[in-house]
Amino acid sequence: MKRVSLLLACLLALVLTSTIPAHAQFGKLGSVLKKAKKISDLQISEADEIALGKAVSEKIRAAYGVQQDAEAHRYVTLVGLVVAQKTSRPNLPYQFIILDSNVINAFAAPGGFIHITRGALAS
User: Fold this and answer.
1) What is the full per-residue pLDDT of the chain (123 aa) written as tens digits?
2) pTM for the whole thing?
3) SS3 assignment, position 99
4) In contact, 123 and 101? CB cutoff 8 Å
5) Range of 26's domain?
6) Domain check: are 14 and 67 in the same one?
């Protein structure tokens, strides 16, 4: 019983100390989420959403660069389109972009612009 209590205490300490950096990084997350909720309640047309996404994607591409690997792009597009068909919006004109970054990350912009980093593909 002592061993289980010690293990639980160690796990609790680990969890509590590991959240400190996350809290420092995302301390204002609550206010950001409230603003995002207000934004998500706005109604915009699909065409406007795609135009917004295109503008966001262009900024992201300019910041990180785009990997020019046709085979990798075909693979990501194939997998992405299969996944996109299972979403609530399968008819969006999805575009899949491989960013030239070693960081492991992937994210979406409005209107179906999906970005994945070279680092995420390599892992």
Assistant:
1) 455 455 555 554 555 555 455 445 455 666 666 766 676 677 889 999 999 999 999 999 999 999 999 999 999 999 999 999 999 999 999 999 999 999 999 999 999 999 999 999 998
2) 0.66
3) strand
4) no
5) 1-42
6) no
| Percent helix / strand / coil, the chain, rounded to 5 | 60, 10, 25
Q: Are residues 33 and 62 in the same domain?
A: no
Any idea which residue has 């205490």 for tokens? 9
- What residues contact 69, with CB distance under 8 A and at least 6 apart? 98
Environment class of 108 (CB within 10 Å of its CB; exposed 0-12, middle 13-18, buried 19+): middle
- The owner of tokens 């070693």 is 102
